[in-house]
Amino acid sequence: MTTTVMTTKGQIIIPSRIRQRFNIKKGTRFSIEEEGNKLILQPLTVDYFEKMAGILKSKEISSKTILQERAKEKALEDKKWSKF
Question: pTM for the full model?
Answer without folding.
Answer: 0.52
